């Protein structure tokens, strides 16, 4: 925390619960893939929970977010129901996308969650457009776009930075730097000081935070979102973090030094905020109770998902397009 | 009714749609100062302001990607991609985002947007400014594909495209910008997916679209002189294409020629021929034929460029070849 | 001879070509540490060093664009684009640069490079990681397009692709990576443009490629049980495709079915059917048929994904349907 | 000139001749389009000659350059024969691309000119690859990539900057800022301080020069190319300038303030270097003689082009590809 009053304990407890929920959801997402219940690509957010939590704590229900392949945490933090997410992950009826999208396309427009995305960093492009729509429609909303460090080297990200600043869009860029893009150490293929310097070269306001410190993320996001809401144009939050597991749930992450993994696990964002809360006088038991409640809720979500039926086959051919859809041909 | 150019018809159509629906806006390079490369946006920024006619940087990914984002958040963007060749700079955003987002997200959202691309050869624009890419878009689930061949169709179909709740690729031909025709300025949208039987005939069916329509009509005139009656169908919408009109025509004539400017191999003509061959096999009196561009990039020098053009002569020759040996004899019922 | 997987065959082939020609090198994301998404580069960076097996940033435009630059300046790059879906992120560089540069520059230079893309569905990869895009590349002048269906073909055709002086799109199927087959590790390049008659037959010709080959062979087995003899042709090279083999087969059987995993509308099957219909019309005893994916994005949930797959049953049914009513009667000569 | 000794008069006279040649070639290119002898897109370099001249004066015959749609000046400065260029422009036999490319594809590999390009800024991407080839083949060459200010906002340019720095390629980026991209004032759609700041954010060495001062360009290019030849990795030269005519030869440039055009014409790079040469004691008549000689040479080039036959039709189908070319189908 660099400025002003500390957050209320209630707010921090809420964020703690959120981080536990995200972690539990993604621990079980990994198990779902291992057991064959989920399929395709499942990217776990375990270790990075503080970023989604701290940022979304500063967003209204009507604000928009756009995410990327590692998107479960952002969805949950933005208020998407883990039951609908678990069903989506298992490809069942009642999934947020009716089982058509899977992990990489989880979205819920009723919560302002515009979608995970399978192409790096196309979610950012969509967020730029969402912000443009907000401006055109004179709405009272802001947009937050999450992306990874790997996205720092794809051209569309630069076009987005330039565009957002030229049109002064109400858009918060959030770079979640977990040091790796898939099996690659991103630093090895990223020239210069990195994302912050790049954003600054577009005259975009930036802040850098320890992404494993939810209070720091919360505070920085508070400052930047306030600025954006005041019409200050786009801003850029750079948060360092680490993913505990492999790039994909089945990737064992053998390209990483076990000592590195260990050192980052020791910086666990949840343990850290629990220590802080205990220092503030919160009872250990209360925290344990939260974790248990969360576990029960997520157990129930996956249980509901397992119990839900698969979508009816004919849904394969709905919602392609109104005229010229598959039924037409 | 009035006579106007293809470019003016497009301009009028967009203006009317922007008057009608405040959610409609356009974005692209060079729309404001001179009104687009063919004046198809002339005066619109002056009328609607720089937010609704947005001059953008040269950022094709963002032009297209942001349009998708804006479309799923309550607006109806008209995307100007300039030359269709640059459409490849935004292919990811078109194929992986615009076309599929409704489906991937389980139908919770639509992407009502129009993707305007100028296609085709014109006067030495060469390999990177002359391409026709309709075959790609027809192959991509989620897209509607329209390619008007006249000012009136441009006027009516651009309206339909803008009102369509799914993404529409709208292909305007460079060689048509300056051509004129009758347009009813008060006309509403034309239906998507309905072809126009431009010229009735009995001996063979010629299916075409965009600028090749002119060549087809010339060919029909020439054939008429030899007593051959060519039915000419302007498809107008390439996806979904008008099966009823095409099938009815082929049922009547028993012969199909498809003519288009784009490369023959893997071109959209292949789809039409394949579908007719599969569905109407017993009705066919002769092998269905495609007349289209050779599989070569478009060259610069005029005599070379001309080698890549589909001419009226080529169309007429293809029709003659598929008819029985004595073209002066009675053909009906053969 | 030895048994190896499709991924191992690809790895071996590249290794041998890199041993043979120091100008050959590869670039793409994640090639080094784990050897690519399917291990198809495993150990090669360790052997050849990080310059010749170049780990790149996530920069598809530059991966492809720089490869073109390096190809016209004396090297022979092998471009790894990971999933074919991301090929759309480099479509401009492929279509507007790689494919046309030799031609636009009047033949003063060649672009000898290979563009590797993993295509197709596998286990819930969904709409942005399951596409087949061969139809696009076949339509683009200047490109050779190869889609091997077996480890041996992968081994031989990747060599041929690397030695080809023009750009080659090399499509490897995700579902085939782990499949095994006999490969002669000492075998040289296979000829480009030559199909493989996998199974001779008399009643109908089935043309296919890539992973659909397996389904086609299953269908042939099932049909054989009903006394129907299906000839199966694995095209292997999609452009230029082997007209001699296909035409000879259709001339013999009089019936053509094309089966492929990609979307049927505008798919490469349309080209084959159109070409056969145009060229071999008198030899056809029945309407040529395509069996392919519906025009829908690829969904995630298994029962939905299965609806987009071409099955052996579908192929067999298509063949049965095009045969005369009594399939137990003698078919030869009908 | 900011440092060291002034260039020899002989060198400057050579550059003067080059600038006159480029100008005369492009004045006549415009006439060729007006009269219908040339076709398609012709982008004149008139007004910007000092940049190509000053940069290429520091390149060896074996070095590579890549250019963009406004590419005539770079070609001539790199030693491409104006006769072959004029023939190409008129689509004739003997054109550098056999009449297949036209203005936007002029290239001559025998002079290390890898080509103009019709897609912004794909020439830069090719240059990156050329530099990679140079490095892989351990050649003693450098590569120069020219592009306009409009290219500053396209994603591939950023990918190129990152890539060149990551792999420390022997590549000189040259941004020719003529204030406009087609009819658009580039500044209106370019966020932040612009190209130099962007290049610096990738830790690339930059210099800024008055692009209408050939001595300044020459000196800066000398410093940067020396650095690159020494293995210093990529560098970036930013040169301000102005095009006298429209974006395309037939564009009247009505979106520009006539006063702006006038003020830039007054900064004519050729008039300026002539004044400098006169100050150095060069005879006015000698300069006029150069201009006349150049005029005669370019007249002769276009004359030769007009006299040359059109290519044989069958060339439309050669050099597509060896296997699977049009003859095959
Ligand atoms: C355009 C594109 N190229 C490649 C990929 C394959 N891919 C998926 S995730 C990934 C790594 C992304 O790293 P980063 O952005 O840092 O996110 P992280 O996975 O670390 O959260 C890659 C290369 C892709 N999805 N899209
Ligand atoms: C990807 C792409 N988008 C759009 C165009 C159309 N276009 C050609 S030149 C040009 C303006 C370029 O401006 P700049 O880069 O500053 O070069 P200048 O013409 O000023 O020399 C545009 C928009 C193109 N060729 N390529
Ligand atoms: Mg990362
Ligand atoms: Mg400019």
Shape descriptor of chain A reads globular
Oligomeric state of the chains? heterotetramer
CATH superfamily caption of chain A: Thiamin diphosphate (ThDP)-binding fold, Pyr/PP domains
The number of E-state strands of chain A comes to 7
Overall radius of gyration of chain B = 20 Å
CATH level-two architecture of the largest domain in chain B: 3-Layer(aba) Sandwich
Strand content range of chain B: 15-25%
How would you state the average pLDDT of chain A, rounded?
96
Main-sheet strand order of chain B equals 3-2-4-5-7-6-12
- Largest interface, and how many residues on either side? B-C, 52 and 53 residues
Distance between the termini of chain B: 42 Å
What portion of residues of chain A is helical? 40-55%
The CATH architecture of chain A can be given as 3-Layer(aba) Sandwich
CATH class of chain A: Alpha Beta
What is the gyration radius of chain A calculated from CA atoms?
19 Å
- The domain tally of chain A reads 1
The ordered H/E elements of chain B are EHEHEHEHHEHEHEEEEHEEHEHEHH
């Amino acid at each position: 925390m660099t400025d002003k009053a500390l957050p209320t304990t209630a707010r921090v407890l809420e964020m703690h619960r959120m981080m536990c929920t995200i972690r539990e959801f993604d621990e079980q997402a990994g198990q779902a893939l291992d057991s064959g219940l989920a399929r395709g690509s499942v990217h776990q957010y375990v270790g990075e929970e503080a970023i989604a939590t701290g940022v979304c704590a500063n967003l209204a229900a009507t604000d928009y977010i756009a995410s990327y392949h590692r998107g479960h945490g952002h969805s949950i933090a933005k208020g998407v129901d883990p039951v609908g997410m678990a069903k989506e992950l298992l490809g069942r009826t009642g999934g947020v996308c009716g089982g058509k999208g899977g992990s990489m396309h989880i979205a819920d427009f009723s919560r302002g969650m515009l979608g995970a995305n399978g192409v790096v960093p196309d979610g950012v492009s969509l967020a730029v457009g969402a912000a443009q729509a907000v401006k055109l429609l004179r709405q009272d909303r802001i947009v937050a776009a999450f992306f990874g460090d790997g996205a720092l080297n794809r051209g569309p990200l630069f076009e987005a930075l330039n565009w957002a600043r030229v049109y002064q869009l109400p858009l918060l860029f959030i770079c979640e730097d977990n040091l790796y893009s898939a099996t690659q150490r991103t630093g090895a293929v990223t020239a210069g000081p990195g994302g912050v310097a790049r954003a600054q070269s577009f005259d975009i306001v930036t802040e850098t935070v320890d992404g494993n410190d939810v209070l720091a993320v919360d505070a920085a996001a508070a400052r930047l979102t306030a600025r954006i809401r005041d019409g200050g144009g786009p801003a850029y939050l750079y948060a360092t973090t680490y993913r505990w597991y492999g790039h994909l749930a089945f990737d064992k992450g053998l390209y990483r030094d076990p000592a590195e993994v260990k050192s980052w696990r020791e910086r666990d964002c949840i343990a850290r905020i629990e220590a802080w809360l205990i220092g503030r006088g919160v009872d250990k038991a209360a925290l344990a109770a939260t974790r248990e409640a969360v576990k029960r809720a997520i157990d129930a979500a996956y249980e509901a998902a397992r119990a839900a039926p698969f979508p009816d086959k004919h849904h394969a051919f709905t919602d392609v397009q109104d005229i010229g859809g598959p039924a037409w041909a | 009714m009035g006579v106007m150019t293809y470019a003016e018809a497009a301009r009028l159509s967009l203006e009317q749609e922007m008057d009608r629906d405040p959610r409609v806006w356009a974005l692209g390079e060079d729309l404001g100062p001179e009104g687009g490369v063919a004046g198809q946006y002339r005066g619109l920024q002056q009328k609607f302001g720089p937010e609704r006619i947005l001059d953008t940087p040269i950022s094709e990914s963002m032009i297209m990607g942001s349009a998708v984002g804006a479309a799923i958040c309550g607006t109806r963007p008209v995307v100007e991609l300039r030359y269709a060749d640059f459409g490849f700079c935004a292919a990811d955003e078109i194929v992986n985002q615009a076309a599929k987002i409704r489906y991937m997200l389980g139908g919770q959202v639509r992407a009502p947007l129009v993707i305007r691309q100028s296609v085709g050869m014109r006067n030495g624009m060469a390999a990177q400014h002359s391409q026709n890419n309709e075959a790609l878009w027809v192959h991509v689930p989620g897209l509607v594909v329209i390619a008007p061949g006249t000012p009136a169709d441009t006027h009516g179909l651009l309206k339909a495209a803008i009102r369509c709740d799914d993404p529409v690729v709208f292909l305007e031909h460079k060689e048509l910008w300056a051509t004129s025709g009758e347009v009813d300025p008060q006309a509403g949208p034309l239906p998507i997916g309905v072809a126009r039987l431009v010229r009735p005939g009995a001996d063979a069916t010629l299916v075409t679209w965009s600028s090749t329509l002119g060549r087809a009509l010339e060919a029909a005139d020439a054939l008429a002189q030899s007593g051959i009656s060519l039915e000419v169908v302007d498809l107008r919408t390439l996806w979904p294409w008008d099966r009823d009109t095409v099938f009815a025509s082929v049922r009547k004539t028993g012969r199909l020629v498809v003519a288009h400017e784009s490369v023959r191999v893997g071109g959209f003509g292949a789809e039409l021929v394949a579908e007719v061959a599969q569905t109407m096999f017993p009705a066919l009196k002769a092998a269905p034929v495609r007349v289209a561009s050779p599989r070569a990039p478009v060259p610069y020098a005029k005599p070379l460029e001309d080698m890549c053009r589909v001419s009226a002569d080529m169309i007429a020759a293809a029709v003659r070849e598929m008819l029985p040996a004595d073209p002066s004899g009675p053909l009906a019922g053969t």
